[in-house]
Design goal:
Layout: H1 3-20, H2 24-38, H3 44-49, H4 61-73, H5 77-85, H6 88-93, H7 101-111, H8 116-124, H9 136-151, E1 156-157, H10 158-173, E2 180-184, H11 185-188, E3 193-194, E4 197-202, H12 206-214, E5 219-225, E6 229-234, E7 239-245, H13 250-258, H14 261-273, E8 277-279, E9 282-285, E10 288-291, H15 295-301, H16 317-322, E11 337-338, H17 352-361, E12 366-372, H18 384-400, E13 405-413, H19 424-427, E14 432-436, H20 445-457, E15 463-464, H21 482-492, E16 495-499, H22 509-517, E17 522-525, H23 537-546
Parallel strand pairs: 4-7, 11-12, 12-13, 13-14, 14-15, 15-16, 16-17
Antiparallel strand pairs: 1-3, 2-4, 5-6, 6-7, 8-9, 9-10
Helix pairs in contact: 1-2, 1-7, 8-9, 13-15, 20-21, 22-23
This protein binds one DNA strand through helix 2, helix 4, helix 7, helix 9 and helix 14.
DNA sequence: GCCGTTTTCGGCCCGACTGTTTTCAGTCG
């Protein structure tokens, strides 16, 4: 899969072109192409081979050739040429808040500033003030921006962002002038990581909201404060933007601030085609506002049915909405049980009984306790004699808790050759067998893919867990040839997991959608190591919704006896 | 650079906030 590589090349080109001051729409063409290639469910190399690249929206004659060049040579002459004009560090400088392409270029030309390090030095030395359009305040802002750049290069994981946002919303709700309030932005779309938190409020007294918001106790800096829009950084270094609109525009504003940018652009194009104007205040025919109070009304006025926030990525949702073929997305309450969890028998922090109590609280019909296998010493993997003891423990609890089925399972290690860490005679006795890779991440893609396929081919393996191994913030995913892996999964009836842990979310939205299209069944699990982790299920559901999955695509929405697991009927 | 039941050329989404510009450009989302 070179999709990501190609997207990165296009993105880099767009950034260099921006600094060079090229045509704005040419820049957007590269950005759009990068987005579309990245979210493409198909392998771009196959498309290139079949000469079908132009079927991708945003890929024309020129980009078709550029993709083919990257696929066959691994490089792109055009990008190499561009890099000769613009030092690499300049592209990095765009990541400093407040520095855009124009400023970056000007600083390079006037002061030969080539990267963030030089930028900081010159700003600290007071060399930037006095340049055209640059005052003392701008210089201060650049230094503040560099601070943010250094600290906040990472994005927030979905759990951190969700917790922070709902905490802030709970406090803002107490202001009596707040009428409606909602998260917006990528958080509302439940993207796997979030850069900042957007909150939308409707109120008749925007100034009061702005004052109350910027006066909250955990505000460290106020980075902007206007009559209807303010931005702050919290003491935890999280950026929060609040925007206030009138109630009559709440739906329009919610739509606008939820995005994505690409989704919004498409909506506006649609409005223009219908002779209407769309902005964050509503839909207008001439001067007359014809919609704006609710999102539902906004979509209807454009001839569309309501589109769930998780789908708003311009990945075909507008077309599907217009043609009334949007998916009926899976919901948290559809989940009947969790098939991947750990206990104190291996590296979990809660006993089996605590896990079972947690699962009952969620109303589950079943929970699988799938502790690690013997060779995973570091995670307290269980030898075969311990398995017997664990089984006895479970049987005792099964008699105690008759309203939930406790499944005896394992997360069995797939070794570097693709062999499993327990013999078939042991696996055969398990209710649930999850295969997972825990070492050998650096193997070439073909080897890793072979390991996964081999695990699928074992008739006792029901599920492949966290299929790409990524741990956001600490480990990148290993590369898997999903076309081949999904084919093996479909042919053998093996399910793939969406792991709900915020640092994993693996499969991700793009891969999970690809799995569905390849006819592979999905299981959404938490991989809980503590009873309270069982609540992470909502993040896996978010990934599934972003992948267009419906209830029927996910095995653990079914009652135990009806679950279409391999060898279970 | 892409794209087309109004177009193969001329379009391409829209507005708030900031700083220093006395009328608006740059940045951001």
């Amino acid at each position: 899969m070179k999709n990501k590589l190609i997207a990165e090349v296009f993105r880099e080109i767009s950034q260099i072109l921006e600094i060079k001051g090229e045509n704005f729409f040419k820049i957007r063409a590269y950005e759009k192409a990068a987005e579309n290639v990245e979210s493409l469910p198909d392998d771009i190399e196959s498309l290139a081979k079949e000469d079908r690249l132009k079927d991708i929206t945003g890929i024309g004659k020129d980009l078709d050739e550029k993709i083919k060049e990257i696929v066959s040579t691994g490089k792109l002459k055009y990008l190499d040429e561009l890099k000769k004009d613009i030092p690499e560090g300049l592209v990095d400088m765009l990541k400093v808040p407040g520095i855009g392409p124009k400023t970056a270029k000007m600083l390079y030309e006037k002061l030969d500033i080539q990267d963030v390090v030089m930028l900081e030095r010159m700003a600290a030395a007071g060399k930037i003030r006095g340049l055209e359009g640059m005052g003392e305040k701008t210089e201060e802002n650049i230094l503040a921006g560099i601070d943010i750049y250094k600290k906040g290069r990472e994005r927030l994981d979905l759990k951190t962002a969700t917790d922070a946002a709902y905490n802030m919303i709970a406090r803002l709700k107490k202001i009596k002038e707040v009428k409606n309030i909602s998260p917006a932005g990528s958080l509302r779309r439940m993207k796997e990581t979030v850069r900042d938190i957007d909150i939308l409020v409707s109120s008749k007294a925007p100034q009061k909201i702005m004052d109350a918001f910027t006066g909250l106790v955990d505000v460290k800096d106020i980075t902007a404060k206007g009559p209807t829009k303010s931005s702050i950084r919290t003491k935890d270094n999280i950026q929060v933007d609040v925007r206030v609109v009138e109630d009559a525009s709440y739906g329009a504003a919610l739509m606008y601030f939820t995005g994505s940018k690409e989704h919004n652009i498409k909506l506006r194009q649609l409005a223009i085609k219908k002779g209407l104007k769309l902005n964050e205040y509503g839909i207008f025919r001439g001067e007359k506002k014809i919609a704006g109070k609710t999102e539902d009304e906004m979509y209807k006025t454009l001839g569309l049915s309501y589109i769930e926030p998780e789908l708003r990525e311009d990945r075909g949702e507008l077309e599907a909405s217009a043609e009334a073929r949007l998916p009926d997305l899976i919901k948290l309450k559809d989940i009947k049980g969790d098939l991947h969890s750990h206990s104190t028998w291996s590296d979990g922090g809660s006993s089996i009984e605590e896990m079972v109590i947690g699962a009952r609280k969620l109303g589950y019909e079943y929970i699988a306790i799938t502790d690690h296998s013997q060779s995973l010493r570091i995670a307290g993997g269980l030898g075969t004699s311990e398995l017997d003891l664990k089984r006895r423990d479970m049987e005792r609890l099964s008699r105690k808790y008759k309203d939930i089925k406790i499944l005896f399972g394992t997360e069995v290690d797939i070794d570097s050759e693709g062999n499993l860490d327990y013999p078939d005679s042991v696996l055969k006795e398990m209710d649930i067998v999850i295969g997972a890779i825990h070492a050998g991440f650096k193997q070439p893609v073909a080897a890793i893919t072979r390991r996964i396929i081999k695990a699928c081919e074992n008739k006792y393996v029901h599920i492949i867990a966290h299929p790409t191994g990524r741990l956001w913030g600490s480990r990148n995913e290993y590369e898997v040839n999903f076309e081949e892996a999904f084919k093996a999964a479909r042919d053998t009836g093996t399910a793939f997991e969406i792991n709900s842990f915020p640092q994993r979310l693996d499969l991700n939205d793009v891969n999970a959608r690809m799995a569905k299209e390849a006819g592979v069944k999905i299981v959404i699990n938490t991989d809980s190591h503590l009873a309270e982790h069982l609540g992470m299920m909502k993040f896996g559901i978010a990934v599934a919704r972003r992948a267009w999955l419906e209830k029927k695509d996910v095995l653990n929405t079914a009652a135990l006896g009806k679950m279409a697991l391999k060898n279970l009927g």
